[in-house]
Amino acid sequence: MARKKSSISADSKPASGAGARRIPMREFSRSLPMSLLRAREAVMRHFRPSLRDHGLTEQQWRILRALTSIDAIEVTELAHVAFLLGPSLSRILRDLEARHLIERKVVKADQRRVVVSISARGLRLIEAVAPSSEAIYAAITERYGARRLARLQEMLRALEGSLSERAGNEEDAEANAP
Questions:
Q1: Residue 155 and residue 176: Cα distance in Å, rounded?
Q2: How many angstroms separate the CA atoms of 150 and 137, rounded?
């Protein structure tokens, strides 16, 4: 199905007049989720060619990167860490296992639980991608500024923590409500 091109840019404002909608919300282009998505897209635009050159998708890379920092992890926890839905993760793990980039093992004490780890081949792939990835980071840092980038990452962690704490408190309050 062909997609209709939109004439709305990120900074455009709705036309005033009889056909304009009056909704009591901030402009779409100023919504926090859209700002974060646009920033993510701007960053990933630089990384995708390198990932493609190494035969990886963004999601596969996230999984492999997560697995480099741990010995093994349960699949449900990996979904949480890599921000992937279970069905997507299952498919991606199947593909990575077929390429011998990861290893899956059933937990002997509980046959329903599966742990995943990166394989030696997966580590070699990470090592092959790392120089390109670090060069991209260096270019982004040079363009945006090291201090600004560090501050941005600090602010994003603070935002996430603030919103996570609040969500956790709200969930606790709901659980404890009579």
A1: 31
A2: 12
End-to-end CA distance of the chain: 50
Q: Is residue 5 classed exposed, middle or buried when 0-12, 13-18 and 19+ CB atoms within 10 A define those classes?
A: exposed
All structural domains of the chain: 44-154 (1.10.10.10)
Which residue in this structure is represented by tokens 């492999």? 64
- Show Cβ contacts of residue 58 under 8 Å, excluding neighbours closer than 6 positions: 44, 47, 48, 51
| Spatial distance between the Cα atoms of 145 and 107, rounded to a whole number of angstroms | 46
Which helix (H) or strand (E) covers residue 73, if one does? strand 73-74
0.70 exceeded by the pTM? Answer: yes
Q: How far is CA 72 from the centre of its chain?
A: 20
- The pLDDT tens digits of the residues spanning 12-41 come to 455 555 556 778 888 888 899 999 999 999
The packing angle between helices 58-68 and 120-144, to 10°, is 110
Residue type, 69: S
Beta bridge partners of 104: 116
